[in-house]
């Protein structure tokens, strides 16, 4: 089962990037990381019927289509979803690759809220896109700072790692369950 991850942070030392790398290492199967920072701003004029979409958009759509499950890992900015991630989802709304695709949403924040606003907004957008949001695989990780080992740029907190493993087990189960 192939897992494709999308990160809402472009920061080199991103704490969400550390969560994402830890998740990919735990996944039992092939994985990929979408390069959503290279996408142009969403513009329906670039995506008309019969048009060839911009190359980074076509690449993203192909990666999502080839994945059995999606993992979104993101910070929250101003109680919202980072523009780079919302932009990527906007490019996927009408093309349909997310339809019935099992998705986990994980947000990590230095604050006790764990990015709850962005988490809820991402889930709502994905439901609108008729993705299959796997609630049991979604997580809000609070106080992320000390849970990351800067030397490895991975999660170091054992409880959080165990919970991440549990979340991925739920996502994998959803990806192997045939659609009704
Ligand atoms: C402009 C700005 C707005 C932010 N707004 C929020 C917020 O609304 N909620 C929150 O939990 N964290 C907020 N943060 C803190 C981010 O969660 C923090 O910078 C985090 O480390 C970014 O994620 P990353 O480490 O994966 O890049 C904000 C940070 C910045 C720079």
From TrEMBL:
InterPro entries: Flavoprotein-like_sf (IPR029039), FMN_Rdtase-like_dom (IPR005025), NAD(P)H-dep_reductase (IPR050712). It holds the Pfam family FMN_red. It comes from the Bacteria. SUPFAM superfamilies: Flavoproteins. Residues 1-136 form the NADPH-dependent FMN reductase-like domain. PANTHER family: CHROMATE REDUCTASE, NAD(P)H-DEPENDENT FMN REDUCTASE LOT6. This is NADPH-dependent FMN reductase-like domain-containing protein.
């Amino acid at each position: 089962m192939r897992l494709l991850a999308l990160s809402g942070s472009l920061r080199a030392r991103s704490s969400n990037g550390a969560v994402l790398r830890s998740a990919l290492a735990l996944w039992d199967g092939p994985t990929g990381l979408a390069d959503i920072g290279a996408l142009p701003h969403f513009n329906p004029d670039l995506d008309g019927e019969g048009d060839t979409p911009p190359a980074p958009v076509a690449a993203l759509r192909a990666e999502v289509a080839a994945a059995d499950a999606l993992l979104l890992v993101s910070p929250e900015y101003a109680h919202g979803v980072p523009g780079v991630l919302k932009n990527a989802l906007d490019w996927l709304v009408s093309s349909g690759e997310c339809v019935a695709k099992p998705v986990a949403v994980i947000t990590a924040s230095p604050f006790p809220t764990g990015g709850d606003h962005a988490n809820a907004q991402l889930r709502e957008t994905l439901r609108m896109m008729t993705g299959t949001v796997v609630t049991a695989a979604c997580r809000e990780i609070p106080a992320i700072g000390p849970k990351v080992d800067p030397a490895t740029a991975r999660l170091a907190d054992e409880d959080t790692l165990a919970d991440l493993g549990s979340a991925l087990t739920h996502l994998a189960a959803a990806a192997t369950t045939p659609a009704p």
